[in-house]
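Weekly structure sync, notes
Attendees: PL (lead), two postdocs, one rotation student
Agenda item 3: pending single-chain targets
PL asked that the sequence for the first pending target be pasted directly into the notes so everyone works from the same version. It is reproduced below exactly as submitted, 434 residues in total.
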Amino acid sequence: MKKLCSYLICTMLFLCAILSGCGQKAETEEVSADVPFTGTLRLLNIKSEVNDQINELAKKYQQETGITVEVILLPAGVDAQATLKGYYLSDQMPDIIACEASGFGNWEGLLEDMSDQDWVSRTDAAYVDNTYGTLGFPYTTEAIGLAYNADILSKCGVDPASITGPSSLKAAIEAVDAKKDQLGLKAVVGYCAEPENLGWSSGNHIFGVYIDSGLSRTDTTYIDLLNDGGKLDTERFTDFAKMMDLFIQYSDPDLVAEGAYNDQVLNFASGKYAFITQGSWIGATLTGDAASEYAAAGNFEVGMVPYAFQDGMDTILTSAPSWWAVPKEGNAEEAKAFLQWCSEDSAQQILVEKAGFISPFKDSKYVASDPFAPVISQYISAGKTSSWHWMDMPENLGQKGIAFAFHKLATGEVDVDGFVKEVQKITTEWYQKL
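Predicted structure, written out during the meeting:
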């Protein structure tokens, strides 16, 4: 009887609360609309190389609006989507998250459609889902190509424009190797195939070269083939594998199999490599954390040549590498207001001039000091870019699957033919498990 009375009392209180709430709903909403946001926005940053600049962005927003933005850093190599799932399950989801293309599939129906935002009309780089609308805010454009030290190539008599296929690429590498000791180089190529922390580089970005190099931006031939059960074009992939084997032969033996990203980039910044298998994002390191080493090496001009593993390949790969998105659960309106601000003048100045991002917004008046900015602009203006369709691979296939085959090639555990078979085995089995 005592339990029943307690139950009835609780029920009556609950009903009273509902009735009271219904009577006051309009008034509450009207009052809250005029109350300024006093909480904290939480932003997930997966670009560790520009974390200081993103924090500066947050500080500037607070100065202009009074709203605090907490930046949550995920170091390079950390699985962002796995981390976000943990946040979601523990009810600690950030107000603004970072997603690569494949990551959006994890949040179907859970993200804000930002199609009505002003910034959408000023960029061609938003992430748009056919079902759920405009889900991703682009904050930069990046490029994947074989980056080079122009000073070294000049001293070795190598014209970057001459690199148009496998024979000319090999000739350029051999020309640099012939003067390696004279120029004090540690290696001709800075390439690292360590899979645990650098799997995102080999398994995603470099494997993406096989998928897109030399193709028009809308050509999905090889990603479609891959997504049809994990199939590879054996002839094309074998040519790609031969290029990777060439890089290994002329890479830094101390780093090629077990190296770290920071060491790879620092050695390039210090003028110890002629080429490096990283994309335009390393420009922020050259002018940031490695600025003193880069200055000591003469602040050399950089450039990019296509990964021309077949004759006639003349494109680099460009895209927004990831996007900021807004979960519906959380401070969604405030988060969208922050993103709108990020597309405007004061934020663009920080993102472009200080973070070194290539603005995806047509009306941005700022030009990045990033040494790769003019390189990307030249390829874009010439119409010599391919897309990043590796982002349409199943989640983690590259980083936690294909990357381990790259490591086996780097250690000599497999040769070129063995590498082709190993990747084919990994992709086939991966799709069978989906």
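Discussion points:
- Confidence is low (pLDDT under 50) at residues 1-33.
- Residues 2-33 form the longest helix (32 residues).
Action: rotation student to compare against the earlier draft before next sync.
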